[in-house]
């Protein structure tokens, strides 16, 4: 164990200095000890960074609770041992290891590779910085037993992460994450060769040097019929200082449309400091400001973006002189509409689409209207990727999946979210719609007219501690749900508790989705076609709220989601969690500003 309840702080410091051979992080701990900063030392050393279904992600700093060379070595040793012990018959297939442009990503990847070589496991080494989708794709293409991507995705510059895929190309999921975590705990002490020189590792016969070129060319050639493309409108692209630009540029050149892309030059090259954005996340306000400014200057109507590791995709369009920022749900249904239109009729009876329970219900309505099966999943592509594989094993074909947080999966390319393929498909769709006199925004309005205007409002409350979060959800449960019970001006029609394992509408009241008693999640359906979910975040001190209303008009839908927020705030947040804080203004998916202070 890295820590024990009986360990003194001095025990923890000595253990760190015994195990850590990275001069920078050793110096950090030594300087904190000299400064007698016991509070910070306790924070850094008392608890270990948790390995979960997303692997690791956190701040880069010295200490067992942070991302650093030692915790990467420990994680790699545990994962290598797990593969040898639990999947020995597959271990000869090797692991794919890649990294992005963040600080320390290359170093962390080399340390991970060394651990696998020590265990006698082959490493398929990506010599160049890689977008995350190429790891999922590469695991499948190279038929590896696992894949590791060193990336902090869209997190701030001081963060990094360690993302793990299994042989099916999907992110690991339960119970595998818990089994790997136990193996890490059993292999915390660095092996004697854990810190050896990278040059020694490179000389090993177990290193498959740079399959990246072959994998990337195969990935670029793996575009399906849904991304066969005419010439789209000239557009602006930004990778937000990440690693997506080169791959997307080559992809578009191969499609013969590279000349219509103009990039934000100061954001084109990878830069781990993300100097022009406060948060390198296309979801965040202001992230696309430079792209919008360039589009205005060049008189272009479309802006697209990837996050730094290129697994997310965002888009905006200039509409009547103002910029409309598509939500993740908007892009999801637009991509789905294009894919449905491109699907050969004989394939529809085998086709399935997925989205998460906090994403729009519009996808289900669209799919069922043309005879395509729909399946709801829990949040995260660890669920969508693995469920897609299960469905495929049953003889069906998952043609598309998405989550409202700008993540889109195209299983015939890879079984994880893929911002680069999303960009190609979006541009293909835009080119086709334009021939019919439609822009993406106009196509979205056409879909709303057909299926109802779906307005969403996604927000969060900051929770001061886990106890407050639990108190909120227990308080809501004490509210005693019954069908038809009023909640403000609405009436409850269905409720589902994924923590307690209850669904008022299913046989035996058992949810169809997997129950997770370690997390907090409630979903409520109300009259007037309204659904909302309250969910405790697994990675941040937040309770997230997702509201959706489907109404005949935009104004009716906006009013419904705003009224729902007001009711949840008054009836549940203020009584059961008065110490939670919130942002004073929230934008709905169509851009309507809701002021919480007016509630």
TrEMBL record:
It is found in: Cytoplasm. Its cofactor is Mg(2+). Keywords: Carbohydrate metabolism, Cytoplasm, Glucose metabolism, Isomerase, Magnesium, Metal-binding, Phosphoprotein. Transmembrane segments: none annotated. It comes from Elaphomyces granulatus. SUPFAM superfamilies: Phosphoglucomutase, C-terminal domain (SSF55957), Phosphoglucomutase, first 3 domains (SSF53738). One of its GO terms (cellular component) is nucleus. Belongs to the phosphohexose mutase family. GO terms for biological process: glucose metabolic process; guanosine catabolic process; inosine catabolic process; purine ribonucleoside salvage. One of its GO terms (molecular function) is phosphopentomutase activity. Pfam families: PGM_PMM_I (PF02878), PGM_PMM_II (PF02879), PGM_PMM_III (PF02880). This is Phosphoglucomutase. The keyword Secreted does not apply. Residues 49-187, 233-317, 328-441 form the Alpha-D-phosphohexomutase alpha/beta/alpha domain. InterPro entries: A-D-PHexomutase_a/b/a-I (IPR005844), A-D-PHexomutase_a/b/a-I/II/III (IPR016055), A-D-PHexomutase_a/b/a-II (IPR005845), A-D-PHexomutase_a/b/a-III (IPR005846), A-D-PHexomutase_C_sf (IPR036900), A-D-PHexomutase_CS (IPR016066). PANTHER family: PHOSPHOGLUCOMUTASE 2B-RELATED (PTHR45745:SF1), PHOSPHOMANNOMUTASE 45A (PTHR45745).
């Amino acid at each position: 164990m890295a820590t024990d309840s009986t360990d003194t702080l001095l025990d923890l410091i000595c253990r760190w200095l015994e195990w850590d051979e990275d001069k920078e992080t050793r110096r950090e701990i030594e300087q904190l000890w000299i400064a007698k900063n016991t509070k910070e030392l306790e924070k850094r050393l008392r608890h270990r960074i948790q390995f979960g279904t997303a692997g690791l992600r956190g701040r880069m700093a010295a200490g067992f609770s942070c991302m650093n060379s030692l915790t990467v070595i420990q994680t790699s040793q545990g994962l290598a041992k797990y593969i040898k012990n639990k999947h020995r018959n597959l271990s000869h297939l090797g692991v794919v290891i890649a990294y992005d442009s963040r600080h320390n990503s290359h170093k962390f990847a080399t340390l991970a590779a060394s651990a696998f070589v020590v265990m006698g496991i082959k490493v398929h080494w990506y010599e160049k910085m890689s977008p995350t989708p190429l790891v999922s794709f590469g695991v499948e293409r190279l038929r590896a037993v696992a894949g590791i991507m060193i990336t902090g995705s869209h997190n701030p510059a001081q963060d990094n992460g360690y993302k793990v895929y299994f042989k099916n190309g999907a992110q690991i999921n339960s119970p595998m994450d818990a089994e790997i975590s136990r193996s890490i705990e059993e292999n915390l002490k660095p092996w004697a060769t854990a810190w050896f020189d990278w040059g020694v590792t490179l000389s090993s016969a177990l290193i498959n040097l740079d399959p990246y070129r072959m994998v990337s060319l195969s990935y670029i050639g793996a575009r399906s019929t849904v991304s066969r493309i005419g010439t789209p409108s000239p557009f602006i692209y930004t990778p937000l200082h990440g690693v997506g630009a080169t791959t997307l540029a080559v992809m578009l050149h191969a499609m013969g449309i590279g000349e219509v892309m103009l990039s934000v030059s100061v954001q084109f090259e990878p830069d781990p400091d993300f100097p022009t954005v406060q948060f390198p996340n296309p979801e965040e306000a202001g992230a696309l400001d430079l792209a919008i400014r360039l589009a205005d200057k060049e008189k272009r109507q479309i802006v697209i973006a990837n996050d730094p590791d290129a697994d997310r995709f965002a888009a905006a369009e200039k509409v009547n002189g103002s910029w409309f920022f598509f939500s993740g749900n908007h892009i999801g249904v637009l991509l789905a509409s294009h894919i449905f239109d491109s699907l050969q009729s004989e394939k529809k009876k085998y086709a399935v689409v997925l989205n998460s329970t906090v994403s729009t219900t519009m996808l289900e309505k669209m799919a069922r209207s043309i005879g395509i099966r729909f399946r709801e999943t829990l949040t995260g592509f660890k669920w969508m990727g693995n469920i897609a594989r299960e469905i495929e094993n049953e003889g069906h074909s998952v043609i598309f999946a998405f989550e409202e947080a700008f993540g889109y999966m195209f299983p015939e390319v890879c079984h994880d979210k893929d911002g680069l393929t999303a960009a190609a498909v979006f541009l293909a769709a835009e080119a086709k719609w334009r021939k019919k006199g439609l822009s993406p925004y106009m196509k979205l309005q056409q879909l709303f007219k057909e299926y109802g205007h779906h307005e969403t409002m996604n927000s969060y409350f900051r929770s001061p501690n886990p106890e407050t979060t639990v108190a909120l959800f227990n308080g809501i449960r004490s509210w005693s749900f019954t069908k038809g019970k009023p909640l403000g001006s609405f009436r409850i029609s269905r409720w589902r508790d994924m923590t307690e394992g209850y669904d008022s509408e299913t046989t035996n009241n058992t949810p169809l989705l997997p129950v997770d008693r370690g997390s907090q999640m409630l979903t409520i359906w109300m009259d007037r076609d309204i659904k909302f979910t309250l969910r405790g975040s697994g990675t941040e001190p937040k309770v997230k709220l997702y509201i959706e209303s489907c109404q005949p008009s935009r104004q009716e839908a906006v009013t419904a989601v705003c009224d729902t927020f007001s009711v949840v705030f008054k009836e549940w947040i203020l009584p059961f969690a008065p110490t939670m804080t919130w942002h004073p203004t929230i934008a709905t998916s169509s851009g309507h500003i809701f002021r919480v202070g007016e509630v």
